[in-house]
Amino acid sequence: MSQDLTNTILERQPSGCYWNPTAQKIGMTFAYCLIFIVSLAGNTVIGIIVYKTKTMRKPINFFIVNMAMSDLLVPIFSIPRDILLLYTDSWLIGGPLGQALCKLAYFLPYVSFSVSVLSLVLVAVDRFGAVVYPLHVPLISSKLCPFFIFAIWIIAMASNSPFLFYKLVEYPEGLFCLLHWREAFGESSSFENYTVSMSVMFVFIPFLLITILYITIYRKLKSQKIPGEQSANAGQQRQQREANVLKMSIGIVLGFAVYWLPFAIFWFLVSFVSDKWSCGFRYFTFVAFFMTRINCAINPCICFIFSRNYRTGLKSLFF
Fold first, then answer.
1. Is the pTM here over 0.90, yes or no?
2. Which are the contacts of 119, defined by CB distance < 8 A and separation ≥ 6?
3. Which range marks the domain in which residue 250 is found?
4. Position 230 in a domain
5. What is the CATH number of the domain that holds 205?
6. Are 263 and 288 in contact (CB under 8 A)?
7. What would the pLDDT profile of 114-131 be if each residue is shown by its tens digit?
8. With 0-12 CB in 10 A as exposed, 13-18 as middle and 19+ as buried, what is 93?
9. Does a structural domain hold residue 249?
């Protein structure tokens, strides 16, 4: 199946599936606008907090900021296109600007996704080194962070470069931003194989690695003994720290799974499901893509919920 069919599944309304087009457009427009505001404000504030707070300039926060900056690409490039598709199937802007926006509207959101995933993996690696090997040289030092961040973006852009082959095609009905995969890469290349490979590389393997690392971190904290822990106060502090680490671990792993696994599952299904126009498959497609949009707004909320430093930084910005 070509990418053009995937676009069509997302753009057409499933007639006969108890779908109210008017209610859907109003509700989804409101939802997208809310996600746009929360994502734009939340991720920007995360960057400002780390920039203004010297004590937070550590590898884990550098990677969180890197993820936040990549998440800004979604409200800027994806959500306006999503809102537009609610009201028209055609592309409204032509010429060189339209061609550039057509490519960036698909390329940059997928780059954002890859950058976020790789940043989460490095956050887990950093925490693993700090907790499991506290007396060793840090696995990721602050001086190496720019190198890792640069490498993340290079890998993300290179792996998603096929999306730069989107182009505007003119039909009697109007302009459409489409990817003709076989025209760009030949008959021997398969878009389905590419998407399955990307799902394995950027969803399933990272999810497994993050899970293993955080389970190891929690077990290490659970088993280690803190010197001078005879006092009740020290014991309570240790238990509280364990609880916070567990909450953070569950939040990161579940957040990653809840918002991205449906998207990865979609790419597997789109290669093997024969009835791509069934109501169930089209509903699942819509939900899977919408959840990826929610993720860019949820990430800063997770930081504020689980991190006292980010909450303190947020208060200092406004009070």
1. no
2. 63, 64, 66, 67, 70, 152
3. 3-13+20-224+237-318
4. no
5. 1.20.1070.10
6. yes
7. 999 999 899 889 888 888
8. middle
9. yes
